[in-house]
Amino acid sequence: MKWINGRLRVLGAAFLLVLWPAGPARAHVVEAGAELRVTQTFGAGEVTLVVAGVSSVPAPLRVRAQALRPAGLELGLELGLELRSLADGSRVTGVVRVGQGGAALPVGQAGPYELRVRAGEEAAVIPFRVLVPVSAPWTMVRDGAFLVTGLLVVGGVLAGRRSGLLVGGASAAGAVAVALLLLAPYLPPAWPDGAAPAAEAAQRDGAAPVAEAGRPYAQGRFSTLPARPVTGAEFTLTLRLTDGATGRPVDDLAVHHEAPAHLVVTSQDGAVFRHVHLLRTAPGVLSVRLRLPRPGRYLAHAEIERQDSGGQLVTGAFEVTGAALPETAPQENATPRLTPAAPVAGSPVTIQIGVEGPLQPWLGMPGHLIVRSEDGAYLAHAHGAAALSFTLVLPDRGRYLAWAQYVTGGRLVTRPFTLEVDR
Ligand SMILES: [Cu+2]
């Protein structure tokens, strides 16, 4: 009987060992529960809304508002929130102050919602989904097998009875539990509650949640109100997106790099640069209020990404009239270190930027580099590696205008520079 006792002890130890990692692993079976960060540019400044994930419903949905100097919304500024369920139309309202605490909006169910954010007279509507993690059936089998193993081992030890049947049962249950634990990376996770039906269907069919074909490119048109903006005066730049196939508004933009749309506005000569995040004001309509200091031609480059599709660049141009004014937020030039020192068209170049202090992520990355050809026909957006270097390929010979952007000490820094590609 001694060998049974020994086996039981080994089994108990093994059970405790595998039980230990089983707990934390269960917590992140699916992406549901992750926080959503959406950056929006209001006329008064930019704000990042942080919507915390929930692990079950009903629950309070926590919303915070963060802003960066110098172009962020004033700290303490009150933003009105309205959360509407698209499933049953129910609404709740709340208030959040920029940089302080947060609001807790009660949600009753998973699924599609719209968060309306009001700053002064401006409002943005952010569509999103409340996702609730769901356990896959096999995780219940695994957990059940662990439980049975534990009960048999502990019960056997407490009762002081060791039988072949007990050891056999515990061994079998333990084997199932361990097998499922080891197979976990290869088993399908459960689709979260509240996920989009298309994604759910893809998951059921065993396919990747991203559709193979994707959706058609959006047709984008820029316009300004007034039609001829004047230097120093606020105007609205609007981007209307329609589906090329159906002509209907494109209202399925995915939040990528913490915004549904990234907009770069540059003066033709590159002296003025704005990187802002359009507000969704109606289905397929995105707009932002701007104030520009110099007259002349401006270029607009918007980065968008439809759900289940790739990224897309939408471009446009507009004219500003009036007298030249001093730039409100002058940007100090960067002196980058290039490798190779003389970049070659079509070959990678690494650009290193000296930074003032430790970097904080901005839009999910340590740093951003935007590069535009002089004529504006080419625009690239590269992401930086730690402290702070970018690698990219410039397509042709010529002069490029570049802007590096990063956050340090709670401040967004923009550093312009130029790149010459001679061969
Ligand atoms: Cu952006």
Automatic annotation (TrEMBL):
<keyword id="KW-0732">Signal</keyword>
<protein>
    <submittedName>
        <fullName>Putative secreted protein</fullName>
    </submittedName>
</protein>
<keyword id="KW-1133">Transmembrane helix</keyword>
<keyword id="KW-0472">Membrane</keyword>
<keyword id="KW-0812">Transmembrane</keyword>
<feature type="transmembrane region" description="Helical">
    <location>
        <begin position="165"/>
        <end position="187"/>
    </location>
</feature>
<feature type="transmembrane region" description="Helical">
    <location>
        <begin position="140"/>
        <end position="158"/>
    </location>
</feature>
<feature type="signal peptide">
    <location>
        <begin position="1"/>
        <end position="27"/>
    </location>
</feature>
